[in-house]
Design goal:
By secondary structure, the protein is an all-alpha fold. The protein has one domain: Orthogonal Bundle (Arp2/3 complex 21 kDa subunit ARPC3), CATH 1.10.1760. The longest helix has 35 residues. InterPro entries: Hpre_diP_synt_I, Hpre_diP_synth_I.
Amino acid sequence: MFSHRKLVFITMLAAQAVIISFFERFLPTPFTFAPGAKLGLGNLVSIIAIFTLPPKDSLKVVLLRLGISTFLAGSFSTFLYGFAGTWLSYGIMLVLKQLGPKRVSVIGISVMGGVMHNVGQLVVFALIGQSWLVLNYLPILSFSGILSGFLVGLTGNYLLTKLKPLQEFQRTLPDGWTI
């Protein structure tokens, strides 16, 4: 069944991710040891989508974010890098979420998402450049992925605890009522 509330939530999350990613471009990178690395603050919205929506709907958020961000300030090559990183990151985060909170935390899921995003981008870069030597950069990018994944996961964990009472309240409302 089609839900307008769900559609609004999906587009709201995607819009927030695009805006966060846009403004992140103006921030200096905290990873001076890793040229090109960013915090990936837009991934915060991906974490929220993964934990508040079914997989098919969280995928819509992630793909909308990727498509709109690339359209606004990207090129075909940035789309390829972002697409590979996003798919690998999203896939591993969904798999890890299925293990449950007793085995892996939101922070752990975010950290692995950050690392796998870098792996996906480097593999595409290696394929385009026809050289696997670029993978020598993986340890440095992995370190930045771990740090940024930790910060994004910590923030996501905090926000998810704040969203939980709102979600529980929404379930108790009679049909047709919204807040």
